[in-house]
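Supplementary notes for students who missed Thursday's class. We covered one full example, reproduced here. Read the sequence, then the structure, then the short commentary at the end.
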Amino acid sequence: MATPAAAPAGGRAPAADAPVAGRVPAPPPAVRPAAADVGARGGPRPVVLDCDPGHDDALAITLALARPELRVLGITTVGGNSPLANTTRNALRVLALLDRDDVPVAAGAERALLREPWTPVEFHGASGLDGADLPEPRMAPRAEGALALTEALIAASDRPVTLVATGPLTNVALLLRARPRIHEEIERICLMGGSLGAGNTTASAEFNAWQDPEAAAIVLGSGIPVSMMGLDVTHRALFLEPDVARLDALGTRLGRVWADLLRFFAAYHRRRYGWDGSPIHDAVAVAHLAVPGLVTTELLRVDVETAGDLTRGRTVADREGLRGLPANVEAGVDIDRGRFVDLLVEAIAASG
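Structure (token representation):
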């Protein structure tokens, strides 16, 4: 709770909405919740997934393809959790596992706009998706690459498209800079990244924002509505050992594969945090679009630190409106974990 302003001598305390000396009142929000989008009504919302699979990205793909509220137009990949060759292969392996060769895949940026990449092998293993035997890809990535494929998918859509970005934001930033006219055809960018509090890669920053802070700054400053599912909410989206047992109980090949993958992913989080499971970060971005009300959000002004060595990639929320800038982000702050787990189990069960 904020500390109330002290009453001046002989007078009354200022009204709660009165400006405080030296502080600029926050202007009205310039961003709307995802539930208010046109694409949230009247049929499935068209989406393009931009990802770096990764266990949680792979589960985000599975959830997006299973939900009737979403229509996945295509998948683009970026270097992040693993080098680009691995993340692209992993996206294709997940589609082979799901028997969804109808979804086009294109590879994008190998590295951040300005920074040297760092691959966190301890999170996802050497392949980027260790822990189970997945089928080999049954198709090749599209030759035109991520930017051209995304532009074509957006141009062919009869409605504005939502970009769901669950890796470093390099591809999205390159698209926005190279194709400025495309802004009006993008309804929203729903991303997994950032944190309103502590980081997970440094004390200040979450991995995706830290990996390419310049790209994150471009996206958050684009003027396109942004939903940010950061660590504040994704660390509440835990898939625990009893939830993994539900996948075993499905008695299907897909259930067993996912149980093995998630036990592998949980091992790192058990060592680092002592958790009996793992946060399924990236699937939160998909779930937020598919099921309104699942994630509790706030409209905030959020900017990305690109200059500080100790604070590189920190996503700074101006909760008190000290800079006098409008809110630019719908930020996730809490989630119905039980319902979220149900969505994931249902998606795996429905996928075979």
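Commentary. The first helix runs from residue 55 to 66. Residues 1-22 have pLDDT under 50 and may be disordered. If anything here is unclear, bring it to office hours.
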